[in-house]
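REVIEWER CHECKLIST
Item 1: Sequence provided? yes
Item 2: Single chain? yes
Item 3: Sequence as submitted:
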Amino acid sequence: MDGVLVDSRGAIDRVRRRWARKVGLDEAMVVALPHGQKTRDIVAKLAPHLDLEAEVRWLDDDEDRDLEGITEIRGAGAVVSALAPDEWAVVTSSGGALARNRLTAAALPHPQTLVSGDMVLAGKPAPDGYRMGAARLGREPSECVVVEDAPAGIAAGIAAGMRVIGVATTYDRVRLGKLGCAAIVDDLAGIQVERKGGVLSLVLHSRD
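Item 4: Structure as written out by the authors:
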């Protein structure tokens, strides 16, 4: 979702800076942390001496409040609107409520199938979320295509046995190109949904 459908980079950076100041960590270091991972995993790694549940709750609450400047990633609305409800899912490291709030803030439709970070034990780069998403769509992993902007999510999609399209919104194409993506697009405007004879195809407009 974040970095693929929704541009929430500004909000994420603001929340990370506020949390870093609160707990006495270097702001620049916290802002530079990889994207696409569960808040719980980040807190556990950075601040194992703190109350994990309390810090995760603080971060979740702060993210829920900060929706300023959240917009649609270019092309996102066109792609999801061209898909039937049982043809797509959002698999995100964010909590369910936050995911819905950010989609609403970006004026994007909510998916019928949403797998949030609080629904799986192991977050990205583990494949659990994507496997759950495929199962809820009634699809085999090999039938699914993951669209991801972050290394952790790309690794999760590949580990789940799915093809991955990288989106160069958060990380540059050079970095994504080393991670095993089947293709890379600049944003979702590079993906076009087509149907011929009842067959759904994703046509990519890419510099690769």
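Item 5: Key structural point noted by reviewer: The domain at 1-208 is CATH 3.40.50.1000 (Rossmann fold).
Item 6: Recommendation: ____
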